[in-house]
Amino acid sequence: MKSGLTLSGRSFITPSLIHPCQFKGESMKQVEPNIKDYDKAYAEFRWDVPEYYNFAWDSFDKWAEDRTKLALVSVGPDGESFQKHSYWDLSHLSKKFARIAMELGIKKEDRVMVFIPRIPEFYVVMLGLIRIGAIPMPTPTLSTPKDIHYRINKAEAVAVVTVEEFADRVEEVEAEMPTLKIKILADGDRKGWEPLPRLMRRVKGDLKREEVPATRSSDPFLIFFTSGTESYPKMVLHTHSYPLGHYSTAFMCQ
């Protein structure tokens, strides 16, 4: 078992983040509903969307104030070895990655393909990009060179973050993606790629919030691509207010 500030490399998979509102393993029992008068709750509920909001700085870092709060359990391929990361661990690591991304030239509203399996690096990279106002594009691990070519060109992405296992797919179409300037390898060293593990060891200090432009709730936050069942996938842009859509669930969970 490992815990703390190490990143996993490709050998660990991550089932999911553990949400602070998750059940705590109690046995099944009958519970009273939190909302006893739905019509009244519906009529009185109001969205509170601030002018400026950033999920990583404003929400995730709140959870990270308790350094013992578990966020992530990553299980190894043998089904027995595992890593644990707290919210504080991921906050700290993502601030380091955010500084690296800025030093490499990634800036606010730049579009970045995140082509990483669900290992700890995925969450670190996503949070780090959100911190600086860049726009991550989570990409399915089954994506082919054709898929990568289409998505990067359609979005005019300037950077890609991936792992050794998938790097060949990017390189196969790299010459046909003129906007792609920065390639980051999350789990090692490879010619022509920025080696994230080495950069994480060398970076000096966590990025501070005052070092980056503020993000408005209406600013671009995240790009998903649709499945493209009838034609080419379509880009779906979410704003920084997108995570606030879960507020109603949290309201009922409390």
Describe the structure concisely for a colleague:
The protein is α/β, with parallel strands linked by helices and 254 residues long.
Which structural traits does this protein have?
Rossmann fold, three-stranded mixed sheet, alpha/beta, 254 residues, 8 helices, five-stranded parallel sheet
Explain what the structure shows.
By secondary structure, this protein is α/β, with parallel strands linked by helices. The chain has a domain at 93-253: ANL, N-terminal domain (Rossmann fold), CATH 3.40.50. The protein has helices at residues 38-44, 55-63, 87-103, 120-131, 145-155, 164-173, 196-202, 247-253, and strands spanning 2-3, 70-75, 82-86, 111-115, 135-138, 159-162, 182-185, 194-195, 220-225, 235-239. The strands form three sheets. It has a five-stranded parallel sheet, with helices on both faces. Strands 1-3-2 form a three-stranded mixed sheet. Strand 4, helix 4 (120-131) and strand 5 form a beta-alpha-beta unit. Helix 3 (87-103) crosses helix 4 and helix 5 packs across helix 6.
Q: What is the topology, as strand order, of the major beta sheet? A: 5-4-6-7-8
Shape: globular
Q: What is the H/E string?
A: EHHEEHEHEHEHEEHEEH
CATH class of the domain at 93-253: Alpha Beta
Span between N and C termini? Answer: 33 Å
CATH architectural type of the domain at 93-253: 3-Layer(aba) Sandwich
Mean pLDDT: 90
Weakly predicted, low-confidence segments: none
- Structural class per helix/strand content? alpha/beta
Structure annotation, total helices: 8
**What's the β-strand tally?**
10
Rg of Cα set? 19 Å
Biggest sheet character: 5 strands, parallel
Taken as a percent bin, the fraction of beta residues is: 15-25%
> CATH superfamily assignment of the domain at 93-253?
ANL, N-terminal domain
Percent range of helical residues: 25-40%
CATH fold name of the domain at 93-253:
Rossmann fold
